[in-house]
Amino acid sequence: SKGEKILQTYYANERIDYLDASVTSRTIIDDYLYKRKPVIIRGLIDKWEAIKKWSFSWFEEKYGNIYTNVFSSGNEAKSSQMRLKKMFAKMQQGEILYSSLYTKALFPIISPDYPLAGTILADPKFNWLLDLPKNIHGEMNVIFIGNTGTGIKNHQDSMGTHLWSAQITGR
User: Is 74 left (phi over 0), alpha (psi -120 to 50) or beta?
Assistant: First the structure.
């Protein structure tokens, strides 16, 4: 996947481990998070409804009229506000765009599509950042939507925090 290629480029001199969904949060924290080592966990989201349901057309039908921040790929410093359906239309015309769709209002509606219960992602030891006041960590539920060629540069979030991401591709 593109995410794997980015990690392999950024961590060219380090081995990237691949683990399966049975990994414990303690292993992730001790062996990867604290050591700042990249890891890819496979199979963790295989049963998510989002894998089957989410597509550009699904988001456009359900949420096409909401406004979102839209970026040209590779230019995270500059964004514009537009409706999601307008972004999709521009993408169909060949523009390489992505949106950081903050899902606070959508969370109650779409969260059943990606259940965290029973995974390391639900473990409070892994999501310690959420225990901090909201003014420190801000909005944590973000969906990045983009077309082929979209990418975000590898970076470190403020305060050395970490986020997990799941990559849903192919439709």
Answer: left
